[in-house]
Amino acid sequence: MPRKRLYNEEETVNFSIRLPVSLRDKIEAVAYQNRRSVNQEIVNRLQKSLEGQALDHEEEDQELSH
Predict the structure, then answer these.
(1) How far, CA to CA in Å, does 20 sit from each of 3, 32, 47, 52, 61?
(2) Does a structural domain hold residue 5?
(3) What is the arithmetic mean of pLDDT over 20-42?
(4) How many distinct structural domains can be found in the chain?
(5) Which DSSP letter does residue 32 get?
(6) DSSP letters of 1-31?
(7) Residue 35 region by backbone torsions, left for phi larger than 0, else alpha for psi between -120 and 50, else beta
(8) How far apart (Å, rounded) are the C-alpha atoms in residues 54 and 59?
(9) Residue 25 is part of which domain span?
């Protein structure tokens, strides 16, 4: 079965980061459990985090305007 593409046809870029070995190990383990590559796991989590952040800011803006 083909893998689901995370980015559709959007252009991608290489992005290097430094992180603790223990965090890398956790990401690798979770990616394995979710049957994703480490890259897919990181992209998925960043997307969800940023979507949640956008919602948080919208709620704060609504609270401030009342």
Answers:
(1) 29, 19, 21, 25, 35
(2) no
(3) 97
(4) 1
(5) H
(6) -PPPPSSTT-----------HHHHHHHHHHH
(7) left
(8) 9
(9) 21-65
* Residue 58 pLDDT: 64
Rounded to the nearest angstrom, the gap between the alpha carbon of residue 28 and the centroid of all alpha carbons in its chain is 14
DSSP string for residues in 37-63: -HHHHHHHHHHHHHHHHHHHHHHHHHH
pLDDT tens for residues 50-63?
888 766 666 666 66
Is residue 46 in a domain? yes
User: Cα separation of 60 and 37, whole Å?
Assistant: 35
Can you read off the two tokens belonging to residue 4?
Answer: 């689901």
Distance CA 24, CA 29 (A): 9
